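User: quick one, fold this
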Amino acid sequence: MAPNDIISDMLTRIRNACAVRHPTTQVPTTKMTRSIAQVLKEEGFIEGFEETGEGVQKYLVLTLKYKDKNRQPIINMLKRVSKPGLRVYSNRKDLPRVLGGIGIAIISTSKGIMTDREARRQNVGGEILCYIW
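Assistant:
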């Protein structure tokens, strides 16, 4: 059975894989998970991702990134903000800064999925999906 909230499922899989220091993790492929993975790669939180499988059984294999030989994860915290039961939106003026700019907020805008910095640069607001630091 597929989960109702694919974003929470993706964040939980990444959080769990980082906690036990796995090199990769799998998440079901959708346009949303692919876009979020692309933002994570551009911001340096993961090394990369690739699609595997065929038909309905397509997965994104995310390669996680670690700081040193002790495998301290780059991602310290993943926090889901907007949920199916309570959507959280922000206009362009009130976009959040995560830890004073150290972390990122992933925003779903009319121009696609992007970070809070990019949304400020493009002067758009949208739904705040999650915080990552």
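User: anything notable?
Assistant: The helical segments are 6-19, 31-42, 116-122.
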